[in-house]
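Message: I would love a firmer grasp of how sequence relates to backbone shape in proteins. Thank you; the sequence and its tokens follow:
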Amino acid sequence: MLDSAQLETLSAVLRLGSFEAAAGRLGVTPSAVSQRIRALEERVGTVLIERGPPVAATPEGARLAAHAETVRLLEAEVLGPAAPRGDWPVIRIAVNADSLATWFLPALAATGERLFDLVIDDQDHSADWLRRGEVLAAVSGHARAVQGCDTRALGRLRYVATASPGFAARWFAGGVTAEALARAPTLVFDRKDRMQADWARAATGQAIALPAHRIASSEAFVSATELGLGWALNPECLVRAALAEGRLVALRPELSFDTALHWQWSRRAAGPLAPLTRAVRAAAARVLLAD
């Protein structure tokens, strides 16, 4: 049996970012916080916190912290109005950047008296965080539920391949061909982002090595596209106005690209997560295309 005070201390250090801040929240000395973390590490036989600065969880530390927050969620549900005010549980969620930029935040705003710790990762990889036990829920591109989790389909986020009018005139004057795509710079979010390459293959029937800028921001993707830095697939709901106003053009209007999204959550915390699950499904329904 793990010591509850030690688990609470681990969670506080990671949530607040330092031993000193955790000591202030818990009403103990920084030395006591350090002793609790050391004792917990000795108990489980591995390092749980990288001391930094800043402090960060090791993979095992993240799993234990998620377990501690699950316990806090369950306690808050049991205590109801008697739960301590202001000491809100933390829900750690893996979500892709485009969902965060387009529809996900209203779901968080609709879920009261919870704190959120968001891990930003590609929808094809976000379920890995659930599989490792490091988050309690995830927006995922995979329909199959991770072991120990439940899943619900949310809908499809539609993407459109876009470029500024000047960029399109310069690089695609002869059409969106394999030769043009092999020369024209594109944008990718990170090394995991295969969306532009997959669209190019669908457009031409060929696998193409695309020259690419790497920009890890959904909003900056749109700005960079408007400025003519490169072409990119952007969520249709983010670029609708820019397309209507002529600041962007669709490279192949008939060739959209849809990504199916699913909400997966830990079955152990299903009860406390139910309000968030309802809010997520409602927020998704307002923006995503139905399957």
